[in-house]
Automatic annotation (TrEMBL):
One matching Pfam family: Abhydrolase_2
Domain of life: Bacteria
InterPro entries per record: AB_hydrolase_fold, Plant_Biomass_Hydrol_Est, PLipase/COase/thioEstase
Keyword annotations from UniProtKB, A to Z: Signal
Every Phospholipase/carboxylesterase/thioesterase domain range: 108-224
Official protein name in the record: Phospholipase
Disordered: region residues: 1-24
A single MF term (Gene Ontology): hydrolase activity
Amino acid sequence: MASSAVAPYTTRLSSNMPADKKRQATQRFTWTGTDGNQRSFSYWCYLPPDAPPTSRLPLLLFLHGAGERGNNLSLVCKHGPPKLIEQGEDFPFVVIAPQCPFDQWWTMPQNLIGLAKLVEQVSADYPIDPERMYVTGMSMGGYGTWQLAATYPKLFAAIVPICGGTNLSQAVALQSIPVWAFHGRDDDIVPLIRSQEIIDELTKIGSDATLTIYDNVRHDSWSATYANREIYDWLLTHKTSNSFGE
């Protein structure tokens, strides 16, 4: 197992313009599930302001936690990359942040289908580089990150699940995907073992899997993680030759 214990980071991302000058939009995506029912997500979208119009851009999908579910899309900007962007930070990715409906979970099969279809639709709407698509999430979104990557193992070039977990049976599906996971040692909501055990299993089968453990943050292992530029640089070092896979 590759792991490390660190104190919270305080590094901030760079900013070149006020938040209200950045290219942001809120949209709604609708799809038909395998059960024949129509479903939808509202989602928040950010476009890098200085990107050349002809360049193909990396995509970062952010999955929020359980407390941000509902029909008030501003909640998705409470944490993570959307929060930092709202505060004026620049990101080199197209960032999309869908909102999970009330009383649902990202790991529900129909929501996983919807997330994959949303990524496909955004990739059709914007000049997305299919070799540089990534997913990250926190708490419920950490679980969603693991499960989405396991369900669509050819879709993402790398993943950053934070204070989440998944069943060990998913290790084989995840083995070719670089993973950098984060968790608080004293997390009292999602125990550290939920990240530890899947990282151990992935390491055992030769995967590129790392776990960073924070001290004294309890459940909030996302604030330090998302404020650290290193994770974004790490994501961008990974590419996949696949786009939309099984």
